[in-house]
Specification:
Elements lengths: L4 E7 L3 E7 L4 E8 L2 H4 L3 H16 L8 E6 L2 H9 L5 H17 L2 E6 L6 H8 L5 E5 L20 E5 L9
Parallel strand pairs: 1-4, 4-5
Antiparallel strand pairs: 1-2, 2-3, 3-6, 5-7
């Protein structure tokens, strides 16, 4: 994998958050609230919503044809993405929306599951209760930002590749 950017995302009970790490070393953080209606959904739905919001937030920094190495600590999200869908209609629907938006932007997403302790920055952002976007610095490329924790060992990773020409989800 030769990604153009790393993305780390997470969703909590009240908010979502994550960061985009660019090869230049620039790190962009984003976070936001979940509405009461969104908080009623499953954690997997909230994780997908976080991913969709981060894509929307960072779209101006991405180019058609980019590959994103996307890190999540949600085993359910990684499992559903690997299967290409979810048996839960509302989760499946937002997953289709994410795939379609990535396809519209011409992006390829390679999703990797990482342990929670390797996703601390995104986790912290998802717990903040105000919406802001900040710029930071990544000190490591291409494997990810040091800000999210220790380096991920190959034994703790599980990858799912989503190509823009095929959404990977039956609609």
């Amino acid at each position: 994998i030769d990604p153009e950017a790393d993305v780390y995302s997470d969703a909590g009970d009240r908010g979502w958050g994550g960061c985009l790490c660019l090869p230049s070393g620039e790190r962009l953080d984003a976070r936001g609230y979940l509405t009461p209606w969104q908080r009623e959904h499953s954690s997997t739905w909230r994780e997908l919503y976080a991913a969709l919001q981060l894509l929307r937030t960072f779209r101006g920094k991405l180019s058609r044809g980019d590959t994103l190495l996307w890190y999540t600590d949600s085993q359910n999200l990684a499992s559903n993405m690997a299967k290409g869908g979810s048996p839960t209609p509302v989760v499946h629907e937002i997953m289709v929306g994410l795939f379609e938006y990535a396809r519209e932007l011409g992006l390829e997403i390679v999703l990797e599951w990482i342990p929670r302790e390797a996703n601390t920055h995104a986790d912290d952002l998802s717990k903040e209760l105000r919406t802001i976007r900040t710029i930071g610095v990544c000190t490591r490329w291409p494997s990810g930002c040091w800000c999210v924790g220790q380096a991920m060992g190959a034994t703790h990773r599980r990858s799912v590749r989503v190509k823009p020409q095929s959404p990977g989800v039956d609609v």
